Amino acid sequence: MPQRLPLFPLGSVLFPGLVLPLNVFEPRYRRLVQDLVAEEREGLKGFGVVAIRSGHEVGEGNARALHDVGCVALLREVTELEDGRYELVTVGATRFRLLGIDTEAGTPYLTGLVEPYGDDEDEADEDEEVPVPADVAALARAVEERFAQYRDQLGIGGAGAPGDPSVLSYLVAAAAVLPLDARQRLLEAPDTRSRLTEELALLKQETALVAALGTVPASELPGEPPNPN
What we know:
Elements: E1 3-10, E2 19-24, H1 27-37, E3 46-55, E4 63-66, E5 69-80, E6 86-101, E7 111-116, H2 134-154, H3 165-175, H4 180-188, H5 192-213
Parallel strand pairs: 1-3
Antiparallel strand pairs: 1-7, 2-6, 3-4, 3-5, 5-6, 6-7
Helix pairs in contact: 2-3, 2-5, 3-5
């Protein structure tokens, strides 16, 4: 059976395990935060971040079409400001497939009808140790090496790569300079093996491009941080 999940459409992609800070100012999303922290909604700890396919973030009805796969954002910190805005710190949890919109939810924000999506080790039971297949481990090493080369080319610093292939795959997806459609494809990859395979191809392409041009094309450079709502 589909589950109901409050939605927060964004012009960006959230990945499991990644931190997402948000500055919430629109009344409908302030209401969402209030609902999430209210005592009567104690069991509801998160909301769905889903990338906008058509439209933009701010304003009623401006997100005209949404992508089919998103990520649950769990609340970690909530700060209410004097002007009524909220500053949130959230972290990506599990992925979901958006089946439709609950038109009878009765809230100013969208509520999605969702089901779990994908088959990643990081989304398995925390107490369950899943052995890493040899081919996935080899892919992870290749992606780590290529990503280090890519960062060096761009002059981007960073800490050492995580040892877990699934965590690495999401970190690379979030940290690489990629257009939204490429990030969305990586989010929708059914498992770690598929995601690492695509990332290796993307990083080979990007490092060759940077080597040829000396920089990342302006069309791929990130602009101002997207307005959170």
